[in-house]
Design goal:
This protein has 120 residues and is an all-alpha fold. The chain is built from four helices and no strands.
């Protein structure tokens, strides 16, 4: 069981987390489709703070003996999911940049060729 003062503190931290996320969304510092990942993380944190017994039940379903070990395993798994998602986003952006660079080079060559034709 989580002490009341710790629970109140954690709820305040989760609320601050949502305020920061919504601030980034308002300032358009993050795209909406990428923001969903962080909102899901906040919802999971909020649920686990509000209902800590849920984490204990989930940990025991997986057969993990110690609550802290289970918490660390889930936290590491969640961080890995976020890293994979961000890596996927970076890879897609890299491919788009490569394609745009190639298209720009083709267009520049066409412009040079047309300029050469005009000067002749």
């Amino acid at each position: 069981m989580i002490p009341a003062t710790l629970r109140v503190t954690l709820i305040a931290v989760v609320i601050c987390y949502f305020i920061v996320i919504l601030y980034f969304l308002k300032k358009k510092a993050l795209n909406l489709k990428y923001m969903l990942l962080w909102l899901v993380a906040g919802v999971v944190m909020g649920v686990l703070v509000a209902v800590p017994e849920l984490l204990t039940r989930i940990i025991h379903i997986f057969g993990i003996q110690d609550n802290m070990n289970g918490l660390f395993i889930f936290a590491i798994g969640f961080v890995i999911m976020i890293l994979l998602s961000l890596t996927s986003i970076a890879s897609r952006q890299n491919q788009k940049i490569r394609t745009l660079t190639q298209e720009l080079a083709i267009l520049e060559k066409r412009v040079r060729d047309l300029e050469k034709k005009d000067t002749k």
